[in-house]
Every structure is written in structure tokens, then in C-alpha cells.
Amino acid sequence: MNRVNDLVSSRLFYPILYGLLSTPAHPRWGVRAMAAERISQMKLPRAEIKAYLAHRLHQTLVQAMRHCEFYQERFKRAGFTSESDLIMKNLKHIPPLTKKDVQEHFDELTAKGISQKNWRENSSGGSTGNPVVLMQDAGYRKEGVAITFVSDMIQGWNYGNRVGYLWGAQRDTKTFKGVVGQLRNYLHNRRIYDSFDMGPAEMRKFHQDLTEFRPHNLIAYASSAFLYASFLLKEGIKPSYPTVSIITSAETLTEEMRLKIEECFGVPVYNRYGSREVGNIASECSCHRGLHLQLDKHIEVVDSESGSPLVDKPGKILVTLFSNLAMPLIRYDIGDIGILTDAPCECGINSPLLKQVLGRSSDFITSPSGRLIHGEYFTHIFYGHRNIRQFLFVQETRSRFNVKIVSMDHMEPGQKDNLLHEIKAVLGDEADVRIELVDRIPPLPSGKFRFTVSQIS
Question: Which of 334, 358, 382 is the last residue before a domain boundary?
Fold first, then answer.
């Protein structure tokens, strides 16, 4: 079967098939050329990279001034009177955009006076417990796919590789299901394994199927890859897959996790960093000295109190996204803490490095029946709830759970019951789930908000 897969999805036939599945209106159209262009740009001298980022930043700020009521007012307060003021050195005068801003000023942030064709609403459950809803256009989706290709190629993937996904985001995995989804999976040489349900029996099935599939690359939540590796090591199983690399995402990859995963699988582990709101932000290369920033966005790390830029010191990560004209995100406070460095890398890529991303992690939750559920599952329950500003899901005992919610206003009729129903659908009816409305959920000392916490072993 693998020989058939290799022929159908080989580096010769895969791009042709991929093109046949696309149309000029589809965001994947021309994406391979864009990916190649982005990789070439990342290898330019640093001075040229800075000039490129400054140009795209100016374009983004001009777009926001012309079409977004929110930024028209914000720029006016910053003293910007003309488009010539919208340059890199003046960026620091624009206040950071918070998740609260997006929640409360959705309409004013949405661009007016431009075509809304192929716009889509997207939402984040919020790895920091702050759900947001936003608009994204076809240009963002197209460049986002290209940037994902760039990231994966830096980390050992190439067109035609067999790929296993240890993944759970329903909005992602649902596109892999059904007749069309299964056809795409076959042609793209990928298989999906549900990381939201990782009990011993399920992981044994994963191992059996992955042994037959023998992927080149395994893409996984960091904690899912760690849990799976720990299980295989405990069982005394030495997997013959993946043959090239493991790519982790969605959470902080600790050194302990990296060592355990590499011990189990015997291939390098690469970390990448991104979010639902802005896509892939940075990717680790083979030198493992940090994560190279992608060039479809500008990244700042600033002091949490003064807002001063920081280098080689931890601070708030601010993201300015260039590609989404539908709803520009300028100096968006993504809710993470990171370390930016000017240190060069020997891999040949000259885009700046995020030396480290601190604080993003998810706990696995244990249901009363003993089923292990990835903490990310509970963030997906809150997708699309615009009136929920923040949440915290806490497992207190094997059967008792507490959900703290900060709401922008009163809960809608039936909303609480619907949330309880969705939570119990995965935990089971024997779970004692309480929803508590609170005014504030304090962050950890690191400045990071947790969205799931398990207080049991």
C-alpha cells in the first residue's frame, strides 16, 4: 500500500494533483510559488529583510487608516495626521491591540469600503483562556498556507511526504472527514489521529496504524507527542516512524518533553509557534537555537509595564499581521511571553529569532472513567462565544470540575446549559461540572493565563 501511496503522492505527481484540487479562487492557488518566494526572502541579508518588513508594515498601516474606524481614531490619538506618518519607527506610539479590544470593537475593526468576497469568520478558543472572533480574507488564508509550507520544509517536510497528524482541533480535523476529506488525505499522503482521546487502547491503535503507514513526518500538539512517547517507552515499544522528523505546535515544548520524544522516536523534534488569530509565527530550524520569524508579520517583544522593546529578555509578544486586510491586527497582544534575540543563525536563514516562547501549555484532563482528554478540547467549546471574555477549566478531583467564566455581559438564555452539555458529552454524565461567573481570572506569575488546570496526578 505504501508503494502505491508513494507513487500517487510522489514529488513528481503530488504538485500536479494538488493543483487539480485547487481553483484560481481557492487560497491554495499559486501557494507553492509564494512559499518558494518566502523562503528566498528569509535568506536575504538582514538589511533587506528589515526593508521588506518596513514596506509591508507601511502598507498594512495605510490600509487600516483608510478602511478601519477603530484605527482611524487610534492613529489620530497617536498624532498621525498623514499616511507618511505610518512607518516602522512610529509603530511604538500605537497602543497594543488587546483581546478585549477585538471582543468589544469587532465592527469598528472590520474593514469598510473593500470587497468582502471570500471573507470568513474565524474564532480562537484562546490558549490563554481569552476567546476572540475575527474576520479573515482569502489573502490571509493563501499566505497562511504558504507560510505553513515554509515552516514544514524548514523542519524536514517536502511535497509528497507521508504525514501523520496527532491533532484534535475539530475545525481542522472535520475537513479531513467525509468522502472529499478522505480523498484529500489519500492524495496528500496524510492520516489523522485524534489527540483529544488518548487512552492506552487508543494509543495502541495509533501505533499499529502508524507502523503500517510509516510516515516521514509526525505533526502533533507538544503535550500529545510527549504523552504518546511516554506511553511507547513504558510499553517497551520502539517505533519505526516517523523516518524524518517530529513537528510540535500549539503549546510550549519543554526541554524535558523534547528529550523524551527524541529518545522514543530517534528523530529530531522541531518546535513551531503560532495561533488561530495570526497563523504560523515562527519555526525552529536544524540548528535549534530558536524559532525563525515568518515574514508575513512583524513581531515585537516589549516590557509588560513600560512597553519598551526588549532583546534577550522575556516580555509580551506583540504581532502585527500583514496579510489580513479584512481585519488588520496591529501590535496585537497575543497573550504569550517570549524572548527575542538578535543573535545570528548558521542555517542560512536570516529572519530574526524568537529565542524562546514561555508559558503556553495544556494539561491533560482525566474523565471519571479514566479517559485522557487533551486540555485543548475545552478551549474549542468556547469558539464563537463572543460574550465570553475569558475562562478557566479546572479539574479538582477525578469527578469534580469547575469552570470559571468572565462574561462581557449576562449569559444568553440556554448558553450555560449548552456549555454544560458539550462538556459532559466528553467527560460523561457522572462528571460534576460547575460553571461559575467571576469578575476576573488572575494570571500566573509569568504573566501567562492557563486555560486548563488539572489538580490530580
Answer: 358
